[in-house]
Amino acid sequence: RPHEPRGVRCAVGAAALGGMGGGAGVQADGCAVFELGGTKAVAYVYGPMETRRGVQHHDRGTLVVSLSTAAFGTTVRLGRGGAARGADRHSQERSMWIQQTLESAILLDQYPRSQIRLYVHVLQSDGGGVAAAINAASLALADAGVPTRDLVAACTSGALGQQPALDITREEEMAGGAQLTMAVLAGARQVTLLEVESKVPDGMFEPLHEMAMVGCDALAQHMKACLLEHATQSFSLRMSLRSGRKS
User: Is the entire prediction scored with pTM above 0.70?
Assistant: First the structure.
């Protein structure tokens, strides 16, 4: 398994809300769920919507990203005070990663004086949480009809001893080896995010980089298949409704 991603499951639109209890997501313009092994992320997109003066850009739209992780969804236990504040800083930092990654893909110049709000919740975290969050967000943006330069796909790699491994688990992350999180514009294979945690041993960066790229390619294929299935089902539903009205 070191050269393959864990099991992938994803759903877009109404299918993503199945079993999620609906809630605020029902009102979202786009939503998606992305699961990678024991990691599960759900994303909701609201907008584009007009923003109040003072937070507008006259020549382009703005993207606002909020990332949260369910306390029961991670193996990391948070203490009081400083630990909680550290977790908040951790989420804010990764929210910025996601925002910058997606800003490079979204055609924000098509939405001047507008705002797109993206809420991503990591419901279960067993490694690769940021990658799963980016993939869920990318699918939700597509569901909302937000135009992008390309689909964004993300994956992680890590050093297990002296060997590179793809899509490492939480336990493998906690081992303290070098970790790399990558996001790409899938078609062009253009890197839009590259974050490295822990010191990378000599001669290991290139193997980790290539491993993560292979993972992004593989996950992009799953995501495209998910979007195609969603589009096919939506088209079939519209045709069925039309036939029903005519009869």
Answer: yes
